[in-house]
Backbone:
């Protein structure tokens, strides 16, 4: 089992949604390395196994949290682009931009937008 806990902040950045992840807690309940060859010196093998497992956990955590951050920003950009495309017809198109930082509560997300029409 893997647990992920994210602290997210949404802000307005030049009319786009800027999502920052200030804290990314990723917990692997079980990530172990098993060596195939049995050796005479079990304590050295266990030390090596523990060290490599610990290192892998931290490397994976950094990479997974970075990818979550990147994908969150791509998804927010895609959402705004799709909202603009939804409101277009032929040669008439629109753009939808944020006018301020979104408000997030436990029950809803509130955001204010500005739309431009291009002919």
Residues:
């Amino acid at each position: 089992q893997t647990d992920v806990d994210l602290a997210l902040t949404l802000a307005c950045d030049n009319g786009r949604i800027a999502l920052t992840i200030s804290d990314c807690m990723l917990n692997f309940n079980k990530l172990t390395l098993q060596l195939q060859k049995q050796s005479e010196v079990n304590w050295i093998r266990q030390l090596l196994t523990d060290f490599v497992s610990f290192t892998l956990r931290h490397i994976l955590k950094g990479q997974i949290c970075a990818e979550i951050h990147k994908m969150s920003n791509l998804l927010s950009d895609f959402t705004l682009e799709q909202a603009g495309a939804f409101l277009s017809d032929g040669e008439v198109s629109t753009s939808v931009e944020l006018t301020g930082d979104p408000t997030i509560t436990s029950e809803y997300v509130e955001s204010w937008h500005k739309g431009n029409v291009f002919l």
Notes: The beta strands are 2-13, 16-28, 93-98, 103-104, 109-110, 113-118. The chain has a mean pLDDT of 75. The radius of gyration is 23 Å. The first strand starts at residue 2 and ends at 13.
